[in-house]
Known about the structure:
By secondary structure, the chain is an alpha/beta fold. It has helices at 4-37, 74-86, 132-145, 269-283, 295-300, 320-329, 333-346, 353-365, 390-400, 406-412, 456-467; strands spanning 45-52, 58-62, 93-98, 101-102, 107-109, 112-115, 150-151, 155-158, 193-199, 208-213, 220-223, 226-228, 234-241, 246-254, 261-265, 287-288, 292-294, 310-316, 374-375, 387-388, 415-416, 419-426, 429-438, 441-450. Helix 1 (4-37) packs antiparallel against helix 11 (456-467). The longest helix has 34 residues, at 4-37.
Amino acid sequence: MPDKRSILFLYLFFWCVNLHAQSLNQKLQTAFNHLERDLQCKYASLSLTVLDAETGETVFAAHPEMGLAPASTLKTVTSTTAFSLLGKDFQYQTTLGYNGTVAADGTLNGDLIIKGGGDPTLGSWRYGSSKENTILKIWVEAIRQAGIKKINGRIIGDDALFGTQKIPDGWIWQDLGNYYGAGTSGLCWRENQYDIKLQTGKVGSRVRIVKTIPEMPNLNFQSELLTGSAGSGDRAFAYLLDKNSIVYLRGTYANNLEKRSIAAATPDPAYDAAFRLADTLKRLGIDLKGTAASTQTLTAAQKPLPEATQILSNIASPKLSEIIFWLNKKSINLYAEQLLKTLAWKAGKPVTTVDGVQVLQDFWKAKGIDSNALNIVDGSGLSPGDRVTTQTVAQILSSAKKESWFPDFYKSLPIINEMTMKSGSISNVQAYAGYQTKNGRNLCFSIIVNNYSGSSSGIKAKMFRILDELK
């Protein structure tokens, strides 16, 4: 039986723990109330949930069940779901093959076919194994090893695996032509983007398009972009019109910006991959009679998509843990959307964004999370129509803490305001979700503000004052 001193010690210990918890709760409540009364939030909706990351116990909650647009903090949900259902070592596969026959003189009487397996990193500059020139060298070497010296056919980019709807429902028109609005593809290439180099002039004058990197000969560019004054920043947007052939640049671009370029979305990355391989073969002296083609161009011409009968090479993507590292570090929308479709594919469902959302919701529903608290239409958070509660995001972050892959997920989160967390921002939306240790206690949190007024820098600073209480 414990003596009186032991009982007194335990009482004091738990009293101190409780006092500390109350102190943190009170500080968070005061800071949250201050933000809620701020003029920037006069017409805004705010929510904050803080949980003990180990136990899931609520440390603080303000409007935790309010459905809000989470912006890119939704990527934490998509990536943790992918880790759970695909495994951290999952890899995509891209094959190069051909149909027809190879004659004794090295002539391929048939087509070369690049069959995409959904890899979002193919041709990406972020990984040594996936760089554009590395992939092209692998393909050229495979073609040479097969003894092919001439091709009496086409080079076809087959992206049929991920279907024909590249853009999720709910994305806005202004985003679609820009790199962050690049659509999904069964055969991605260079993260489905390219650069447009610009030349500014006098304030108010038309910005000139100098060139694109790489060259995009299948696109026609029209600049309605105006030179902005120094300090006005990059407010340029690419708009893709007229059956994916005309790209309009609109908005303003400050004359003091050093980069002088913007990144735009590739309308048909499967065609672009085929075109780059065709161009490379021609430069190396391998005669190609046909042209580059893709699932999209063949469908438009009412021609069938051939299947490869012989495989020349198979390229594995980086592992999922490496993909998610960059997904969250650089907030790559394409990666998130590719993963969402991959969830549908691996579940044996039609490979669509809608079915990917259903798989994600079903997974978390089985763990006790109401699908109505995960009312989403995409995997990246780019859609302003997504509605998620901070309680749900925090619960998912707490759940992740118990998984074997958690170190890889944690490593993927950026350091912002000296805290490990993912940020998210779209028009009049700012959000953060992540982890912080307070006096040895591991916490996880989600904070979202929708429909704030004024500057984004202002609302960020005010949200940081709340999060600073967790330090």
